[in-house]
Amino acid sequence: MSELHKFLFDGLPVRGAIVRLTDAWTEILARRQANTDGGEWAPPVRELLGEMAAAGALMQANIKFNGALILQIFGNGPVKVAVAEVQHDLTLRVTAKVVGEVAVDARLADLVNVGNKGRCAITLDPKDRFPGQQPYQGVVPLHGDQREKIQKLSEVLEHYMLQSEQLDTTLVLAADDKVAAGLLIQRLPVAGEGNLAGSLVSKANEDEIGVNEDYNRIAILAASLKREELLGLDVDTILTRLFWEEKVLRFEPQTPRFACTCSRERVANMIRSLGQEEADDIVAERGEIEVGCDFCGKQYRFDPIDSAQLFTAVGDQPPATPTVQ
């Protein structure tokens, strides 16, 4: 079963979380394989999406946000956009739009950042928005300060969290066909340093008061975790091997799972947004409007009567045709 564990290092300004997506991840892949319209993702795309799912779960659990955390990677490679969406209860879904061939040894730069145009966007969409409230979004480029290509998703997200939260973060991510996993270590603010919105103390002051000493030690241990260890070992073994000299305080584990938020009502609203003229043209050409969910593969069909009802006043509508599963 998929699991996410949060923990603290007793007496130290450092926190962490580790996630292993097993059944949740294999269900996502199985649904994609069953979706005849989409077909299987190439191995590098599966690995990217698995790492995004693990990272999204870690970030959502870390901030305790009552809404959706949406992680997007987009650029000018064969992967035009990749999306991982994680709700406040750790239900998650992922998808990607791929155009053209993907090399079997493709890395992040090859997938989305061929011309240094790639971007990473993280959106926080509140569950219950106030009138006029807009989702918060932060965007970072997929290159470093010297415009070198970043090769790992973990590097992108570490950079994002340093910019947005002003806190040092270490991420280790990995995914294959059976498991998507991640380990997050983050330095917490200490007295005299200011809060998340404040400015950081200077590097000289950090060295003087030793703000980063504990974090650096633990981050080095975390970064030593190999891909095959993260994918193959259970949580207890990983934490014991890495931090056997530290006193780790663990919280109750959480259970991430796959769930899709698509619905016939949402698809109907999308069709309405096209306008009646375009909807009528699609029905005239194809006999019906068929929309498939990119996340779960579910198909929604609207025959001519269903389509006409979308543009009719509610009180004038006859009963809707049952959804075709």
In words, what does this structure look like?
The chain has 325 residues and is an alpha+beta fold. It folds into two domains: 3-258, Hsp33 domain (3-Layer(bab) Sandwich); 264-316, CBS domain Like (Alpha-Beta Complex), CATH 3.90.1280.10. Helix content is 34%, strand content 25%. It is built from eleven helices and 13 strands. The protein has helices at residues 23-34, 43-63, 108-112, 153-165, 203-209, 213-223, 227-232, 235-242, 264-274, 276-286, 304-310; strands at residues 3-9, 14-21, 67-74, 79-86, 91-98, 119-126, 136-141, 169-175, 180-187, 248-250, 257-258, 289-292, 299-302. The protein is elongated and about 70 Å long. The chain starts with a strand and ends in a 15-residue tail after the last helix.
Topology diagram in text:
Layout: E1 3-9, E2 14-21, H1 23-34, H2 43-63, E3 67-74, E4 79-86, E5 91-98, H3 108-112, E6 119-126, E7 136-141, H4 153-165, E8 169-175, E9 180-187, H5 203-209, H6 213-223, H7 227-232, H8 235-242, E10 248-250, E11 257-258, H9 264-274, H10 276-286, E12 289-292, E13 299-302, H11 304-310
Parallel strand pairs: 5-11
Antiparallel strand pairs: 1-2, 1-10, 2-9, 3-4, 3-6, 4-5, 6-7, 8-9, 12-13
Keywords, separated by commas or semicolons:
325 residues, alpha+beta, Hsp33 domain, CBS domain Like, 13 strands, elongated, disordered C terminus
Please provide a brief summary of the model.
The chain contains 11 helices and 13 strands. The protein has 325 residues and is α+β, with helices and mostly antiparallel strands.
